[in-house]
Structure formats: C-alpha cells, structure tokens
Design goal:
Mean pLDDT of chain A: 83
Structural class of chain A: mainly alpha
Structural class of chain B: alpha/beta
Number of helices of chain B: 26
Helix content of chain B: 55-70%
Mean pLDDT of chain B: 86
Number of strands of chain B: 10
Largest interface: A-B, 62 and 56 residues
Strand order of the largest sheet of chain A: 3-4-5-6-7
Low-confidence stretches of chain A: 564-573
Distance between the termini of chain B: 85 Å
Radius of gyration of chain A: 32 Å
Low-confidence stretches of chain B: none
Oligomer: heterodimer
Distance between the termini of chain A: 80 Å
Helix content of chain A: 55-70%
C-alpha cells in the first residue's frame, strides 16, 4: 500500500489484519473500557461545567475518529480530566456554567483546538511538542490535579458551586460553611470514595466504577435522594447528539484562541504519553504527527457532534491495553456501547447522584499525581526543579486561568536553558603557561611564549554567548601586552550563527588594528562552511586557519622568526 | 583602602580621574568641541522626530550626557538624543497626547524617569547579561525597520506638507500619500539638497561630519531661495527662535494613570536603550582595549535618564555615531563628553539666532539621512548567506516593527530568535565512527569502504546537547539504529561533545539503555564531561545505566566492551577493526 494512502487512511494498515480471534479480544476490551468510560464521561462533563450527558456525546463519534485516524490502535479517546478542566478554565470567565452560551463556547474550543492539532500534524510540527519539557508538564499536572480535587469539594459537600473565583478561596468558603453542607450528599460522596478505593485495592479486575455507580444510583432511587435535596444527574435527553456546524463568532474565537492552543498542546501530551507506552508494550511503531492528525480529527468530530473537547485517556488506554485490545475495533466497540446507552439506558442514569461523579473524578486524579518525578528532577538538576515548581505555583496562582501556568513554565524552562548557555565551558590557556597545547613543536622558539593565547570554547558560538567569548579574548589582550596571536581551538564549537559571525568579524578587525592576529584551528566542516559563506574566511585570512593546534604552532613558529613582517603599532611608536 | 571597590562602584569616575592631566585635557577639549558641534543639528532633528519642541533635543545632550559619562563604565561612550529612541517616544506617546503639546513633553519626561529607574535597577541587580537574549539579527531587523519608519515619517516634512500625527507605520504611510498633492517644490528642493549634500559628504569626506555639512548646505539653500523667490511664496518653514541656552528644571507627569500607561513603553525604551548602549560600549572597547563593566554602564544610563527627567531631557541613550566621532577625535576620558555638554551651552548662546533659521525641510533631510544609515543592507545580505532561519528572524523583527506597536516588536524578534535557536539545538549531530587503523593514534573516523563497522558494536558520536528539546530527535535516531542494524546490539556513545544533558535527556539515555538490555545489548558512555556526569550522578541515573558502562578513555572502553562481545559472531567476522581482534583466531568461513 502506498505511504500517502496510509497517511490519509491509517486504519487500512490494521484493517486487513482483523481475524476472528482479534475481533473477540477487541470486543471484550471494548466492553470493559465502555463500562469505565460511561460513568467517567458523565463525571468529566461535569468537570468541564457542562450537563453530564454531553460527556456521553464526547465518548461516541470522537472516540471512533480517534481510533481510525490516529497512529496508536490502543489509544482510547474520549472525555478526560485535564482537558475538561482546561475547557472549564478557559470558558468560565466568558459565560455562566451550564448556560447555552457556555456550551457554544465549549464547542468552539473543541473546534479550535482540533484545528490546531490537525494543522500541527499535517505540517509535521510534532517536534514542537518537545518544547513543553517534562518538569513543566509535571508541575502543571500536579497543580491541575489539586485544582480539580478542590473544584469537586462543593459537589462532595452537596453545596451548589459558589461563584467561580479562585479555587482555593471557593474551597475555603465551603469548608468554613461546612455546617450548611448536605448530610446525605456527604454520605454518598464518602461511600463512593470508600467503594472505589476498596475496589481498586481488593478487586482491581472488576469494573469498580460501574458497580459503584450502579449501587449508589439504586440507593439514590430508593432513598429518594433527590427529594431530600440532593443533586442528581437528572433527565438526559434520549437519543443521539445532533450533528451541526459549530456557530461562527469571530470575537469569541479570538478570545478562545490562546486557551485552545494550550488545550491542543496539553491534551496531546496526555495522549502522547499513553500512546508511547502502548507502542513500547506492543512493540509497534508510533508516529506522533499521525497521532496529532487523529486527535485533531477526534476534536473536530466532537465539535460537529456538539460537545466538548476530547483527548486520549491515560487510564482507559491502559485498561484497553491490559484487556487485550489488538486493533482500533475495541474503541469502536466501546463507542457502540455508549450508543446503546444513549438509546436505551439513559433513564437509568437519571438518579445518579452528583457527589458520586465528584468522587469518581477525585479518584481518577491519583493516576495523574506523580511526585517522584519532581523529586528526581530536584536531585538531578536545580533548573528543572525550578521550572517545575514555578509552573506548579503559577498554575495554582493563575487559577482558573490555568493555561497561563503553562506559558510561565515554558518561558521559565526556555529562559533557564538559554541562561545556562550564556557561560559555557571555556578554557583559556594564557601565554605565560608552560604547556600551551597538548602537543607543541619541540623546537618552538622562545619568542612564541608570551605571544600566543589559546582559547578552547565548548559550545556553539551563538548570540547568547558571543559576549562571553569576546570578553575572554579582550581580557587576554589586556593582560598580556606582548600578545600577538589568539588561537581559537574550534573542536568544541558545533555551530556558528550570524551574531557569532558579526562578533568574530569586528573582533578580528579590532585586534588587527592593535597588531594581534585571530587564528582558528580544528574548525568543524559545518562551522567552516559558515565562515566561507559569510566572507569571514577572507576577512580573517585563509592563512590563519589550521587543521590542528599542532599545525598552528608550527606555522606560528615560522611567523615569529620574521617579526619584521607584522610589526605591532604599539611597538613601532 | 578596603572600601575602594564599593566607592569605585558608586563613583566610577574616581578610576580615571587621576589620569586627567594637561595633555589628556587638551585632547578631551578638542573632542568635546567637535562633539558639541555634531550634536547641535542632531539634537534639533531628533527632538523634532520625537514630536517634541526642538530645544529638548539639545537639553537632552547636556545634563544627561554629562551624568552618563561620569557614572558609566566606558571611557568613550557619548549619550544623548538618538534616532531609534526618539522614534519610539513618538510612536508610543502619540496615542496618549498630541505631539508638541505640554502634556506630551511631560509624558516624555516621565518616560525618561521610568526607564531610567528600570535601567538603574537592572544595573544594581546585575541583569546586564539579559541583553544576550537579544541576538544581532533582532537588532539588525529592528533598526532597519526604524530607519524605514523614520524616512517615511519625514516625507511629508520634506515635501512641505502637513499630514497630521500618526503612531503606526501604515497610518504614516496613508497620511503621507493622502497629502502628496500639496507638495511645495521649493521646500522639496531644500530637502533634497540637504540629503544629497549629506550623502556625498559621507561618501567622499566622512571626516567632515556629514550631518553638519548637510545642515549648512540646506540652511544656506533655504536662505538663498527665500531671498530670490520671497519667503511667503516658497512654503519653507523655519525652526523659529529657540528659548534659553540652559536647560530649565522640569517636572515629569506623575499622575497614576500616566504611570500605568507608560509602564509598557518604559520597558520597551529600556530594552532598546540598554541593548544599544551595551552594543556600542562593547564595540568601542574592542578598539580601545578597555575593560567594560556592562552593569556599571546600565547604572550610568539609568542615572542619566533620571537626571534628564528633571533637567528637560527626554529619554536618552548612547549614540553610535557620536561615540565613534568622539573616539576618532582622540578623546581620552569621559571628560570629553562632559565638556561637550558645556560647549553645547556656549554654542547655543552664540548660535541661537542662526539656529532659528534652520528650515524644516532641511531637518527632515537630516532625519532621512539618519534613517538611511540605519537600514543595514550589508548585514541583511550576510544573514541571507549565513542561514535562512536567521534571515527569517531578521525579516520577522523587521515586519513586526513595521506592523505592530513598536513596544512589542523587539519581544517578537527575541521570541523568534529563541525558537530558531532551540530548533537548531534540537538536532544534535550524530555520526557513526570506527577506529581508523591507518592512523597512528587509531583516531576515530567515519566508516567507509576501507573502514567497516564492527557487526556487534555501534560507535556513535553525539555533538550538541541532549535536553528536552532534542530528546525526540535523539531517540528517533536511536530507534532507527536499533531497527536498521539489529545485530549491533551494543551502542557506545562518544560523549566528549555532549555539552549539556538535562533530566529529560538523562531519561532518554536511560530508556535507550533499557531497550538495549531487553534485546541483550548494552549502552556505553565514553568521555562524559564533568557537568554532564554530575547531572547523571545526582539524578541517580548512573546506578541504572551501570557505572561499569561509563568509561574515560576510548581504548579502555573498547577493551572492556570487546570482552563482552559474542565470540560466535566474532569467529565469523571479517571486519576485525579493533586491536583486540588480533587475539582471536582467524575468521572461519561458514
């Protein structure tokens, strides 16, 4: 099959490989995932600030698109915690949660972030995702997990969510007024958490989330939880989401653009980590640009089926893989299960208490929190730890605009990276030192001593460190009035940019006026071609380039024998 | 005297004061006089450009110039009004006040005060290194765009038309074109004569101070035309009388709203002035051999701007051409700049009546010359030859300056150059190597027809940093190697040229080691640099990579790995590239 065809329709790669056996495995895995996905979808829609049934819409068509057009066959796409939280964070300042306007904005975010991902994938910009470094991501995810937990506190206490201020203040408010909390709701929430912990600990193979939901929904129905003032999911419109074009509103889109960009990046990081694990475990090749296209199309599908942004779910992908999923068919089976739910079982979900959904969200977060990697970062490199901690603090401080936390993190990590590059490893061999180079000619004239300084520079000579290099040369010039040659040993210089060229040119001219020659040895071919292209070679003089330090010293020994050729103006005075 | 270093930092002129003698004083006086003559037309022109009354340009060359010279680090830098900063003042204050009004003037003073405080803070906290974030390409793109804007902003003056005020380039362009039909031919003639005279002087007699020559030619031409045709018919407007020679005390506008509005502009002016000042000071230092303390220079610039706010000086900065002239005229100490400020006061007393005759088209002509000097076509060509990516940075900065509010243009350029830098560093060079048996030292060389690779060991040199931005490139290269050459289960990384590894990079190395071990292979590292080794050690990565897989020397590494090779494959192998291979029996054919 042609590569271009595969790129447009990647599922053709695994479609012919379907056998009766793989179909059976996929059906089992799909069903298993669906049992977890249905309650989670309701919960994450609530987290995103949408009526819970929008989560089911997001687990339907987008899931199928993600499976068909992505690179990984085991990645399970649908509503996820982090993306939902980011969605809520970006829309909350613009519209009241749950309102019609709010839903319209959520759909716009799905569309825009999908377009971002799709265009990144088509333009093969997956590499850019590396700019978001691991420590920044860890700082952000841990902060987000805390914020999500806090955001669920009102629901757990059975209080209506207060006006969306800062999460910490809201939580404080709820805790201070704990006496006013709804006793039944607290009971349901605590029971749900206990059950979920128990299932995870003692019966990890059972679909704990589903059993917990089924038990507590039944309890809610028989105890008339809603009649006693509890908050439940309520009526879910039976049937399928309407397919429609997202409404176009230029102003709203411009407003949502930065948040959509962050969602595109963050949600892809989430999907990417799952897909990478799956690729390693199944020993298959994984293409990040293809995955970007798949994830982008899934988000677009979400926008067209009138729901919130989706992403690859970490927990459900792991479950999918563990249940033996072979191909994308398993995700399609899971989506079909959601379809059946929407068509026939929505009345059953009506009495599901909201505190139970809050408990599900809180428990899902334990997968996201990973303090060990923060500790490792601290031990290995202070810079990484600083970036992680600042991201963490900024994310908490900026809440609910948590995407700003990511921007801070990226800027800090890039800034630190470059700041460290400003003073690279450099060795200056002063003219007075006994050993000028590893190897020097044996018959080196005495006159050469005191007249040559050698500089070893272990970094690309680029704009961030040109002044460091320049100061070193100038210092050499100041300290040794007898200096006549500065030899730059270029074996550690991997690259040269225009700022470097400019600096070397002016340095060469300035030194020459003072009777000092700038010489280069062991320049790498890649760097030498820059010298040649920019005319720097002529300016410095081809006779001043040497293959090695040794060759340079041999030549200099010859030049110093005839000092009359290059009189130093200071001496001539 | 133990207190001396601190004292020197507070009063840096103590360092050169003892060197002032009769000889140096004479040299400084000559250079100072030349400087005063040169700054006279420049000050008037730049103040006009900034939308301020012309005398403010001259005041800006008095107290601020003297303070910057006394408290700065460079012996030869000359501060005062400059073209780029003047344009920024115009562009950033026009939305807030009407150029030329008293409100506009007091805001310009506030801007000087705020940016002065920012520079002072930068100097005290030793943040001068931050200038390194601004690459040469960004400066080239920005100053070229400033040159274009200056020229366009002066066309209407040159043509003798009035076209209102504009802060954005496209507004200027639109206004100028809309009023082109009102051109006054005589005014245009004076302007063109000024430009031509200046350009010719610069070309053929650059030592004659082109701007001064241009001013004289333009003024004389205007006088002649006015005399011949009659002043009321020519449309040539003149500057009019200048107020007193000494700078009056002034108070900046300190209302809260003004301070808030001017915060972003103050940052922008600070970035530009600091970048320009440090670039100039360094350029002079290369020639004079003087040691420069950039942070001290920032303190000097900061104090000079703060003083300017109270002595009628708008934001000032080190000037490229006056600095060059000062050095060329033989200045020895900063006393020359101080003296130039004094001479300027005297000159103004004498020349005030003459200065009143300066025609506006001639001033516009001077600014066109200054603008043209900023457009650095030679540098742009150099960028096109050096690298496409960096040329793109220049182009992006240039376009951003023309299109966006000028305060953000440099930031756009900085972001663009950082992205390019990261893109370049995200692809460390990786080359396969083998020991070259033809070389006496058995140096490593790229494999070729005569230099086969060991079938079990891949030797790879990595040049660059393995950090979060490069991890993907490095890992996919490793993956490809493992797929293409499955037999080469062992990988030796020649790490001498790995300048830097961060946690993400260390994790990538660890992952590679694990993948190799699953496949019964191994990852070895040779010649790690000390800083890189520290990262691996402190993060606990060495334990899992295996200390026994780290080597100092290449011989040592190859000897240890050789002992682990699969002898069954060795027995069939014909490459036999290591010295140790000689200990094996000759290859047997299958």
């Amino acid at each position: 099959m042609r590569a271009s065809t595969l790129r447009v329709l990647p599922f053709l790669a695994w479609l012919p490989g379907i056998t009766r056996e793989s179909l059976r495995l996929d059906a089992v895995a799909g069903l298993t995932v669906a049992l977890v996905a249905i309650p989670q979808s309701l919960a994450y829609a609530q987290l995103a600030g949408l009526p819970p049934y929008y989560g089911l819409y997001a687990a339907l068509i987008p899931t199928i698109f993600g499976a068909l057009f992505g690179s990984s066959s085991q990645l399970s796409t649908g509503p996820v915690a982090l993306t939902s939280l980011l969605t809520a964070a970006s829309i909350a300042p613009l519209a009241a949660a749950g309102s019609e306007q709010y839903v319209a904005y959520a759909i716009s975010v799905a569309l825009l972030s999908g377009l971002f991902q799709l265009s990144f994938g088509v333009m093969r910009l997956g590499v850019l995702m590396n700019l978001l470094s691991h420590p920044v991501l860890m700082g952000f995810v841990n902060a987000a997990a805390i914020l999500i937990t806090l955001s669920q506190v009102p629901a757990l206490f059975g209080v209506a969510p207060p006006a969306r201020g800062h999460a910490v203040i809201d939580t404080w408010h709820v805790l201070v007024h704990a006496a006013e909390s709804h006793g039944y709701s607290v009971l349901f929430g605590v029971t749900a958490i206990t059950l979920l912990v128990a299932f995870r600990r003692y019966a990890p193979r059972l679909p704990g989330v589903l059993i917990c939901v089924a038990l507590l929904t039944a309890a809610s129905y028989f105890l008339d939880y809603a009649g006693n003032g509890g908050r439940i999911v309520g009526d879910i419109p039976r049937g399928l989401p309407a397919l429609a074009l997202p409404r176009f509103s230029l102003e709203a889109w411009i407003e949502l653009l930065p948040a959509s960009f962050v969602i595109a990046v963050i949600s892809f990081m989430e999907a990417m980590s799952s897909a990478k694990i799956a690729a390693i475990k199944t020993a298959t090749k994984w293409d990040e640009n293809q995955e970007l296209i798949g994830q982008g199309l899934a988000k677009l599908a979400a926008a067209f089926s009138q729901t919130m942004p989706v992403s690859g779910s970490f927990s459900r992908s792991a479950l999918n893989l563990a249940s033996g999923a072979r191909t994308g068919i398993s995700s399609i089976v899971a989506a079909l299960c959601v379809l059946l739910t929407l068509l026939f079982f929505t009345p059953l979900l009506k009495y599901l208490p909201l505190p139970v959904l809050a408990a599900i969200i809180v428990m899902a977060l334990t997968n996201l929190i990973n303090l060990r990697s923060l500790r490792n970062a601290w031990r290995a490199s202070r810079d990484d730890a600083i970036a992680a901690l600042l991201t963490f603090a900024a994310t908490i401080a900026f809440a609910p605009q948590i995407q700003n936390g990511i921007f801070v993190g990226i800027l800090v990590s890039l800034g630190l990276f470059i700041y460290r590059r400003m003073r690279p490893n450099m060795a200056v061999v002063e003219p007075a030192s006994a050993q000028l180079a590893r190897e020097t000619p044996e018959d080196m004239p005495q006159a050469l001593r005191g007249a040559v300084g050698v500089i070893h520079f272990d970094a690309s000579l680029v704009f961030v460190n040109v002044s460091y290099f320049e100061s070193a040369v100038l210092q050499l010039e100041r300290r040794y009035p007898g200096l006549r040659f500065v030899l730059v040993s270029g074996s550690g210089i991997n690259d040269l940019d225009a700022s470097g060229v400019e600096m070397l040119a002016s340095l060469c001219d300035g030194l020459r006026k003072n009777g000092i020659e700038l010489l280069f040895s062991a320049v790498k071919p890649r760097v030498r071609s820059v010298f040649d292209r920019t005319g720097l070679t002529q300016r410095i003089g081809t006779e001043n380039f040497f293959l090695s330090d040794y060759a340079a010293f041999v030549a200099l020994a010859g030049r110093i024998e005839r000092p009359s050729d290059t009189p130093r103006p200071a001496d001539a005075d | 005297m133990p207190a001396q270093p601190y004292l020197r930092r507070l009063l840096p002129f103590l360092a050169w004061w003892p060197r002032v003698d009769r000889k140096s004083l004479r040299a400084d006086a000559i250079a100072g006089l030349i400087g005063a003559v040169v700054v006279l037309p420049q000050g008037v022109a730049y103040a006009t450009l900034a939308g301020l009354p012309p005398e403010y340009g001259l005041y800006c060359a008095m107290v601020p110039t003297a303070i910057a010279a006394l408290f700065g680090s460079s012996l030869h830098a000359v501060s005062g009004p400059t073209n780029a900063v003047s344009l920024m003042v115009l562009a950033m204050l026009t939305p807030l006040a009407v150029p030329g009004s008293s409100g506009f003037v007091s805001m310009a003073l506030t801007l000087a005060l705020m940016s002065g405080l920012l520079m002072l803070a930068m100097g005290f906290f030793r943040l001068g290194v931050l200038v390194n974030f601004i690459s040469n390409g960004v400066i080239v793109g920005f100053t070229s765009a400033v040159g274009i804007i200056i020229i366009v902003s002066q066309i209407s003056q040159l043509f003798g038309t009035h076209s209102g005020h504009a802060s954005q380039f496209y507004e200027m362009l639109h206004n100028t074109i809309a009023h082109l039909n009102e051109v006054h031919p005589w005014a245009l003639a004076v302007g063109i004569l000024t430009v031509v005279a200046g350009a010719l002087t610069k070309r053929y007699a650059p030592r004659m101070a082109p701007m001064l020559v241009a001013t004289v030619v333009g003024t004389v031409a205007a006088l002649a035309i006015n005399f011949a045709v009659g002043a009321e018919n020519t449309g040539i407007r003149t500057l009019g009388a200048l107020p007193g020679a000494l700078p009056p005390l002034s108070l900046p506008d300190m209302r809260g709203a003004t301070l808030t509005n001017l915060l972003a502009p103050a940052f922008a002016v600070t970035i530009l002035s600091v970048t320009q000042a440090i670039a100039i000071v360094r350029a002079v230092a290369i020639r004079s051999g003087q040691r420069i303390d950039t942070n001290q220079e920032l303190i000097g610039q900061g104090l000079s701007n703060i003083a300017g706010a109270f002595f009628s000086g708008y934001p000032s900065c080190a000037s490229v051409n006056r600095c060059g002239i000062n050095y060329e005229s033989g200045a020895r100490t900063p006393l020359s700049a101080v003296l130039s400020a004094g001479f300027l006061v005297l000159l103004l007393l004498v020349l005030a009546p003459v200065a009143a005759l300066l025609p506006h088209p001639a001033i516009a002509g001077l600014l066109v010359l200054a603008g043209w000097g900023l457009i650095d076509i030679g540098q742009m060509r150099m960028y096109l030859r050096t690298s496409r990516q960096e040329a793109a940075v220049v182009a992006a900065t240039l376009l951003a300056t023309l299109v966006m509010p000028i305060a953000y243009a440099i930031l756009v350029g900085v972001m663009a150059s950082l992205v390019v830098y990261l893109h370049r560093t995200s692809r460390p060079m990786m080359r396969s190597l083998v020991p070259d048996s033809r070389h006496s030292e058995r140096q490593l060389a790229p494999p070729g027809e005569e230099l086969p690779e060991c079938p079990q060991l891949k030797i790879l040199s990595v040049e660059g940093s393995i950090y979060f931005g490069a991890v993907d490139h490095v890992e996919s290269h490793f993956d490809t190697l493992r797929e293409l050459t499955r037999e080469q289960r062992r990988l030796l990384l020649i790490s001498r040229n790995i300048n830097f590894v961060d946690v993400a990079g260390a994790e990538a190395l660890l992952r590679e080691a694990r993948k190799r071990r699953w496949d019964n292979g191994q990852l070895y590292l040779q010649g790690l640099r000390q800083p890189v080794e520290n990262v691996l050690k402190n993060g606990g990565f060495i334990e899992e990579l295996g200390p026994e897989n780290m080597f100092r020397g290449k011989r040592e590494a190859i000897a240890a790995i050789f002992a682990q090779l699969d002898r069954a494959i060795c027995a069939r192998c014909t490459a036999r590239i290591f010295q140790e291979c000689a200990t094996l029996p000759p290859p047997r054919e299958e």
